[in-house]
Amino acid sequence: MPHTKRRRLVTTAVAVSLGATALAACGSEDGSKAESGPVSLTYWTWTPGMDKVVDLWNKGPGKKDQITVTVKKQASGDTLVTKILTAHKAKKAPDLVQAEYQALPTLVSNDALADISGEVGDVKDKFAEGVWQQTTLGTDAVYAVPQDIGPMMFYYREDLFKQYGLKVPTTWEQFAETARRLKKKAPDKDLTTFSANDSGLFAGLAQQAGAKWWTTSGDKWKVGIDDAATQKVARFWGGLVKEGVVDNQPMYTPSWNKALNTGKQIAWVSAVWAPGTLNTAAPDTKGKWAMAPLPQWSLDQDVTGSWGGSSTAVTTDSAHKEAAAKFATWLNTDHDALNALAKEGGIYPASTSAQLSGAFSNPPAYFSNQADFYTRAAGIAKTTAPSAWGPNVNVAYTSFKDAFGAAAKNKSDFAAALKTMQDDTVADMKKQGFEVSQ
Amino acid sequence: MSSSTSRRSYGVKGAPYGFLLPATILFALFFALPIGYAVWLSFRKVHVSGLGLGPGARQEVWAGLENYTGAFRDSELLDGALRVLGYGCVVVPVMLGLALLFALMLDSDRVRLAPFTRLAIFLPYAIPGVVAALLWGFLYLPDVSPFYFVLDRLGLPQPDLLDGGPLYLALSNIAVWGGTGFNMIVIYTSLRSIPAEVYEAAKLDGATPLQIALRIKIPMVAPSLVLTFFFSIIATLQVFNEPTTLKPLTNSVNTTWSPLMKVYQDAFGRNDIYSAAAEATLIAVVTLLLSFGFLRAANRRNKQEAAG
């Protein structure tokens, strides 16, 4: 989740001690095979307010089935993946974990996630196909239940677009034209920035363009980071940065907040969770923003990428897979649970039926000017392109940050940076012993 | 008493070992064992079979020196070491120079408000490195920094402190700001322990305060200077907090800016604890060589001076 990303500023700087991991890894291992009698489960998650949602379970369906879930609050994203893998080495991973979609292959490859296809039943129909496919990794197994998704959208300052006579771009070509026109009219302003500190954004943009970064054939992996679709995206943004019509400074910094809050940057390519981030970054511009679908590569297309989103998975260390899968299903498909998740945790549900009900009947407070915000969001979510994650997304993401960070800074060739990203990823896979086809 | 001589001598023989036992156990458990384990890990690696999905696809196997040759061949580790060298060339002389200067000034007869000044110079050391780096990071960002606001108002040029050469100065500044106070206290304490007779004798011989500082005080605190230099080399080689904290604020600091950041990234970003263990071992060896090499050189000089 993006609003927790800025917190990484502090958390990454604090040394991770293995001792703390061991302390937190008090999984329940009472060894009882039969699913009768009281069961207690541990759940690692970073979603704010999850304890309140779990309370609903513990007082309702959980009480009936004698399944008690305890929430252990964790740091978000990659940090948690590392922690799960470390705990799993000691066979002490918790019963349930939250995991971003792109982390699932890494976790499965380390044998940390259990196949729950037999336990979750027919939940598949509750989710869009592209979302569900990420939890199966294209196999017959099911490794997680989708929780939230992050379909990408275009956010812009409605008032400033009017003031500068700009039209909302529907294609990327128009997007570039809009950036140029703004630069001409107001040289000290930028349409947006190309930020190299969140690889998820670039991955989502590539996904929209049709990129498939990891695919398999037989026993071999194929890495397509440097494919034609991604090259197109890289060249597009590299060109804009070089031209100087978009900024090249990273997101989530105090400078970035100020640029959004004062109207120095007047648009942001983001995802459905943007209202929460904008609320903290640019509180003074509340009600002045509007949301539109992401610009397209060609006019006859209607497709978006996804940035963020996570799932609930059961670990192989859990002694109560059935009970854990039952909770994971309830949490992500039950009407009351999803409503509470939206209210307490601010998540956008993966479950299609929840996207238009309850908490999502009204627009977010920050976008009170756009009454149909969530109706449009649900429509856009349907157009999400399928994604293709591999077992070392973390390596590709780090390589992106370093290579594109340097390229953005020097306003140099983005295609070369993309090549670096591809080479780093393939080299790491080969080093680990994966079979990689050229 | 005399009748039990033989028994006592037996007891005395075993006593040293008995007294050594707690220390030996602690040493083995909390020093030798973890280091030994890290070295063991550095000779291992993971092997994946097939697509690497599902149980049993990942196995830990013997790697030999593969992780070490990999670390030597990895240009990023060497680049990181060079970056840290550049950083150290700014930090160590400036920090120790300032520490010595402040210590001498505080030790002079004419100083006023000495306790307050001493505390004020020392105080930044009490601020955690991460907080210090965050604090300076905000001051370096043009859009939120009051310095840039003032520079802007005065129509002066506004350098980008988070890029290129100035980045080294910006990072060094954080270390100097935080470390000068500590080193000053070490030098100052040893200045205070110089007997007053030495100064009296010097004054009687007609030495000026400046001459006393240069010819008496500095040579007499040389051992503390060596010590602070030794500490500073180690701290420089281990730089991690400052660049890691500034990393999200700028494109110029990458995830492997310093060797320790590379170790962290390999262990927790790439989940390759084996390479990380090899790199950590290398860094430890280099740190040992550099710091003890320096100590030996300093000792040899001292002996030569004593002999000459």
Structural notes for this entry:
The complex is a heterodimer of chains A (438) and B (308). Chain A is of the alpha/beta class and 438 residues long. Chain A has two domains: 2-150 and 308-381, D-Maltodextrin-Binding Protein, domain 2 (3-Layer(aba) Sandwich); 151-305 and 390-437, D-Maltodextrin-Binding Protein, domain 2 (3-Layer(aba) Sandwich). Chain A contains 19 helices and ten strands. Residues 1-34 of chain A have low confidence and may be disordered. In chain B, α2 (66-73) crosses α13. Chain B is mainly alpha-helical and 308 residues long. The model of chain B has no long low-confidence stretch (mean pLDDT 89). Chain B has two domains: 2-62, no CATH class; 74-307, MetI-like fold. Chain B is flat, with a radius of gyration of 26 Å. The N and C termini of chain B lie far apart (54 Å). Classes of the chains: A alpha/beta (438), B mainly alpha (308). At the A-B interface, α1, α5, α6, α13 and α18 of A face β1, α5, α11 and α12 of B.
